[in-house]
Design a protein that fits this description.
Layout lengths: L13 E9 L3 H11 L4 H12 L5 E2 L23 E2 L2 H21 L6 E10 L3 E6 L5 E6 L2 E9 L17 H8 L9
Antiparallel strand pairs: 1-7, 2-3, 4-7, 5-6
Helix pairs in contact: 2-3
């Protein structure tokens, strides 16, 4: 059994999945996880499909060096309209989401009420290759893979608000009177 960085409070209501040493860019996966955290599972899968079809972008908020500015990134209020379409990383992330949904079905959870409560991406050890440079030199040529872990949680039914025609307003004076307790007093 592998350790996750977060253990859920109610493990019976959660579904987990993880991928290790995935040969996809760490920076792309970090931005994808940042965008999908808090989404319902249906919305997240739809978002993955839209990015792979180039209908919407993944906004880049932390790793923004050299990221192009695109009009589609305005949909998500991206800082500086910085966004990309990381198709390979999105395909792997979508596969992890479908695996988490399958794990939830095995546990007997309601898949319509699943929400991504935890999505974390860590750097994995780089894959080292070499490239040949001018004047007989050799340079490094490293890939930046990642580890991804996702936890889905089944949301509970929302509590309905009480029907009050007009809320009772308590002034400071009324609150002070309620705090005051009569002591003694005798008979009437």
């Amino acid at each position: 059994m592998v350790r996750y960085s977060v253990e859920p409070e109610v493990p019976e209501k959660t579904s987990k999945t993880r991928g290790s040493h995935l040969r996809i860019h760490y920076k792309h996966c970090r931005e994808i996880a940042h965008m999908t955290r808090g989404m319902s599972i249906d919305k997240a899968v739809r978002f993955c499909e839209d990015v792979m079809a180039f209908k919407t972008t993944v906004t880049f908020s932390r790793h923004t060096g050299g990221i192009g500015h695109h009009a589609q990134a305005k949909q998500h209020k991206a800082p500086g309209n910085a966004g990309r379409w990381p198709v390979k990383a999105m395909r792997v992330y979508r596969d992890l989401l479908t695996n988490a949904v399958a794990n939830a079905e095995v546990k007997g959870l309601d898949t319509d009420r699943l929400v991504i409560t935890h999505a974390q991406v860590n750097r994995a050890p780089p894959g080292r290759r070499r490239t040949y440079r001018a004047h007989g030199r050799i340079g490094k040529y490293a890939s930046q893979p990642c580890h991804i872990e996702i936890i889905l949680t089944e949301t509970s039914d929302p509590v309905e608000k009480m029907d009050d025609d007009e809320p009772l307003r308590i002034t400071k004076k009324m609150a002070a009177k309620r705090r005051f307790v009569k002591v003694g007093g005798g008979t009437k």
